[in-house]
Structures are given as structure tokens and as C-alpha cells.
Amino acid sequence: MTEKFGVMKIRKTFIILLAALFGIGLLARYAFRDIALDADLLRESLQRMPSVILENLEFEREISGDLWQVRIPLAERRGGRVEVRSIDVSRRMGNGREWYFRSAAGFYSEEAGSADLISLLGTLETGSRVLNLESPYLSWTGLETEESGSDFLFPRGLLIYDNEFLLTADAASIDEKGVILLDRGGVIKWTRDEGGAPY
Fold this sequence. Notes:
Number of domains: 2
Strand content: over 45%
CATH superfamily of the largest domain: Lipopolysaccharide (LPS) transport protein A like domain
Distance between the termini: 102 Å
Mean pLDDT: 77
Radius of gyration: 27 Å
Number of helices: 2
Largest sheet: 12 strands, antiparallel
CATH architecture of the largest domain: Sandwich
CATH class of the largest domain: Mainly Beta
Shape: elongated
Structural class: alpha+beta
Low-confidence stretches: none
Number of strands: 12
């Protein structure tokens, strides 16, 4: 009886070991298949997924000599649209200047290739000063045109200031070189007199 029990124990251990090896082999097969997936097939599959949530994303990319860094704590894909909660974007230009944007929320449409940011705060380094920027809404099409390049649009207003002035505009745009266009004019208020003293 003891010998029969020992044989059954060895047989049971062998079956468990065989099942474990089969499971590992199956997992390895699927892992290698997933690694070999075509990028377009993967993209199409992701677009068909009803919803995907990603956390703590960081991207870094060099575009035309400028280093762009993006940090997103939470992103949710719904169809062809990605919604983000909080986003930090920094741009270190080839000339050493930096732009920095922080937004409470944002949206990206893959089909349109556009991004919208809500409740935007930022800084823009120029040759001689650092400008602060605030806007309730930023829109970026990402599509370059001969007339405007790839502009950052502020259709709901823009506030730019530093320790010497305050500029408000109902609508504005900034091109990638930093040129600001006030689409419907604006108001500037100097906050220091000619001697540098605050008003």
C-alpha cells in the first residue's frame, strides 16, 4: 500500500510539473507572438478597445533640435481620443531657452492630430526675460501651414506678464519661434515706472 501511495505521489508531482512546463511554454509562445506584432495592427487594436487607462507616462523627443518632455500622471483612451488629467510639457530649445506648460486637463484627437489643454499655466524664456503665461484654453493642431506654421492657439484669451508689464488679450496665438499674435488686439499695463519702481 505504501509503495502504491509513493507511485501515486510521484505521478501527481510529475503531472503538476508537466502542467507547469506546458503553462510556461504557452506563456512564452504568446509573449513572443506579442513581441512580433506589427505596429499598425497594434495601433488598430488599441483604437478598437473601448477604454484604456495608463498612469505615470513620460515621453522625451527631439524635434528640430529642440528637446520636448511630457509627463502625464493619468491618461485614458476612449476611441480615437485620449483624455489626460494634469500634464507637464517642457521644451528646451537649441539656443538654451526653455518653455514650460502645466495644464489641469487635456484632450488629444488622433484623427485630427490636435491637442487641447485646459487651465494652462506656463513660462516662456526670451532673450532678456522670463514671461509668465496663463490661459483657460490652448489648442494646437499640430498641422503646419505655410502661413502660420504649427501655432499654439488661445481662442478664450491669454494673459502674459512679468515683473514689468501685464498683457491681456481676448484671443491670441504663439508660433513655435515664440512670436505672439494678438488676434483681436489686447491691453498692456506697465507695472513699473521708468526708474524701475513698482506703480
